[in-house]
User: Fold these one by one.
Assistant:
Number 1:
Amino acid sequence: MSASTNAVVFAGDDPADEMTLLDILDHVLNQGVVLRGNLVISLAGVDLLYVGLDVILTSVETALRHINATLPAEK
Amino acid sequence: MAVALNSGHRVIYLYGITESKPRIPEMIGVDRFAKVEAIDCDGLFCWISRVLAVDFEENLAHNMENLDWLAETSVAHQRVIGAIGGKTEILPCRLGTIFRTEASLCKHILKRLPTLKRDFARIKGADEWGVKVFEVQPVLSALPKVRSGKDYLEAKAALLPKRRKKAGTAEEIEEFERALSGIAAESAPAGNVSRGQRGLTFQRTILIPRAKRKKFESLLEKFAREWAQQRRIECTGPWPPYSFVSRPEDGVQFK
C-alpha cells in the first residue's frame, strides 16, 4: 500500500513512505515481546515524550540519512 | 592513549524471534556498527546484535530522552525487524530489550517457550496496522466574497460537511470501529506516544489477516469518501505485530 489514495493517507511498506517518528514509537514501544533478562530495562524516560509531543513531531528523515550512511553497499 | 571508537563491553540487543532462519541481506544493528546475527536457541532463532553496554544498558533511560538518539535507534530497530519480518513470521521485541549474555537470552527463551509458541500461532498470516481518524477544520479562507452577515453565515454553513442528521460524531466513529472489528483478527489499545496529536478523535492498532488486506483498504476508502472533508483517516502499516505478543506473566513493571 505504497500509494495514498485521494481519500486515505497510507504509509507503510514503501521505503519512500514518510512515517513520522510518532507512528514508529507508537508501535515499537507499544508492547512487543518483553523478555526479562538478567537485567530489568527501565523505559521511564519515555514518559517525557507524552509531554514533549510538539518536540517530537519531527520527521525521521535525519535518522534515515544517518542510518543509510552507515549501511554497507549493496552486493 | 587513544581509545578505539566502539570499543568496550558489549551486551546482546534482541530484535525479535523467528521459527526459521531465512537468508537476509547483511544488516547493521541499532548502534550503526555491529552486524545483525541469528542465534539458535533450541530451535527458535533470536535476531540480535552486540551493542555497547554503556549506551544500551547503563545509559538507556537517559538516551531514551535524547530524541535524536531515540529517532535513530527506533528507525534502525524497526528496519531490522521489518526486513526479517518480510521473509518470515517474527515476534518483534520492544525497543531496548537487552541481555547480558547469549546464555541468559537462551535460558529465558526456553522458559517462555509455550507462550512464544502461542504467540506465533496468534500472529500467523497477519500484520499489524495503525489507524487514526482526525477531525478536519473547514478552511475559512475558502469563503467567497460576502455582502452581509447573512451571506457570510450561509457561505460558512455551505462549507461544513453534510452530515447525516441521525448520526453524530460518536455514532459514526462507533460504526467505523464496528466495521474494522469485522475484518480485524484482533484489536489492541493504540500506542501512547501520539495520542496528543491535534484533532485525533480515534486511534486503534489492529491485526489484519493478509488475506483480508484488500477488504481492509476498501473499508478505509469507503469511510474516507463518506466523511469527505469532515474527517481524515491515516493508516500506517504493515507493521510487525508489536502489539499482539504476550506480556511477561510475572507482572514485572517495565517502567
Note: The two ends of chain B are 39 Å apart (CA to CA).
Number 2:
Amino acid sequence: MQSAADISWLDLAVGYIILIIPILVFRYYKTGLIKDTLISVGRMTVQLLLVGLYLEFIFKLNNPLINIFWVMIMIVISSFTIIKRSELSIRMYFFSVVFALSASIIIIDAFFLGVVIRLNNIFDARYLVPITGMLLGNCLQNNIIALNSYYSKLAKEQVLYRFSLANGATRAEALLPFMRDALKKSFNPTIANIAVLGLISLPGMMTGQILGGSNPVVAIKYQIMIMITIFVAGIITVVLTINTANKYVFDEFDNLKNAGTNR
Amino acid sequence: MISIKNLTIRFQDELVIDELSFEIKAGSKSCFTGPSGSGKSTLINSILGFVSPQKGEISVDGVLLNRHSIREIRSNTAYLPQALNLPLDTVKELIYYPFEFKRNKANKPKEKEVLELMKIFGLEENLIDKSLGEISGGQKQRFALISCVLQKKPLLILDEPTSALDNISVDRIISYLFEKKDLTLLSASHHDDWIKHCNFLVSMNSIPNKSN
C-alpha cells in the first residue's frame, strides 16, 4: 500500500481559496459570521500545525507520563470549551465536566486500547493521543448540546419542575423529563449518523487511515470500534456531568440557583 | 396545620411580604386575597419552599419548614400552579403525571375514579382521550385539579384555581371540595364566590401587608 500523496505548502495555501464560497454566502445574507469563520479557520490552522509539530515530538519520545499530561491538557481545554459554549458558569460546572470527561476517557481508553486492540502499552502515544482526541471531540459536541438543553429548559420550565416537586416528586423524579430531553437532543444525531455510516458519510478516521496506506478492512474495523466507543463515551460524559453538577447547582430546597427571581 | 410567624419576603429592593403572621387549622378552607402583585403566589411559593424568606418562620403540621423537612412537607401536598403551561401533550398525561412519582404510585386512580370526578366537575367523558391542544383553558384547569384531588393528600394548595372557569364550574368545584372535612385547602383567588365559601381569609394588600 502506498501512503497518501503529500500536499505542498503552496497547494495547501491554494486550498484555502475555496473558503471564498461560505464567506460570500455569509456576506450576502448578512449573517455576521465572517469574522468568526476567519478566526476559527485561523485557530484551526495554528493549532493543527502546532499539534503536528508536537505530535512528531511526543511520538519520538513516547513517554507515558508526557502522553498522560497531554491528555489532561486536552481534557481541561475541552471542559472550558463545553462550559463556555453551554453559557454556564465556570465556577459551578468546571469540576463536574472535568470529572465526567476524565472518567469517560479512562473507562473508554482502557476498554478500547487495552481490551479490544490489546496493546501492550495503552499509553503508546500513536494510539492514546489520537483516539483520546477523537473521543473528546465527540464528547464535547454531545455535552454542549445536552447541557444547553438540560439547564436552559430547566430554567425556562420552572413551572413543570415546581409542579412535580410540590406534588411529591423527589428531585431526581422532577428532573427526569429534563434528562430525557437532553439525552434525546444530544444523541439523536449521533444515532442517525451511526445508521448512515458508509452509505452517506465516510468517516474522517477511516478515510485518513486508507489515505495513510492502511488496509481498508483494518480501517473499517477501527471505524466500527470508534463509532461505538464515541457513542458510549458521550453517554457516560453527559450522564456523569449532569448528575455531578446537580450536586452543586441546586440550593438546600432543591431550587435551581440563579433561576430568575423565583417569584 | 400551617403556622406563619413574622414572615418577611423581599426581592432585591422590593418588599413583597412584611411581618405577616397567621395560623390555619387543619381542615379549614383558606384563601389569600388581594390585588395582583400583592404577594399571594409568593406566599404560596414560600410555603412550598420555592422562595426563601428573609425573616420569619413557616411550620406545616407542627414541622418547621427547613432544608431537612422540605421534602417531607412537599410529599404531603398536592399543588395546582397558576400557570398551567406544562409541556405535556394529552389529558391523560396531565392527570396521571404526578402518579409517576414513587410517593403517589399507590394512589394511582383507576379510570373509573377519574371519570366519576370528571362528571362531578362537569367534564364530558370523551375529553379524557383528547390532546391538551384540543381542550379549553377551563377544561385543562379542571383536569389539573382532578389530578391534584386524586392524590388524596392532606393539604391541597391551589393558586388561582378558578381563573379560567365559568361560574357553574366554580360552583361544582366548591360543592365538592368544601365538603371534604379532612382536607386542608390553601388557595389564592380573586373569585368572589370562592372567597365567600372559605372560612379563613388572609387579605394581602400592597405593602404594608396586613393579615386579617
Note: Confidence is low (pLDDT under 50) at residues 259-263 of chain A.
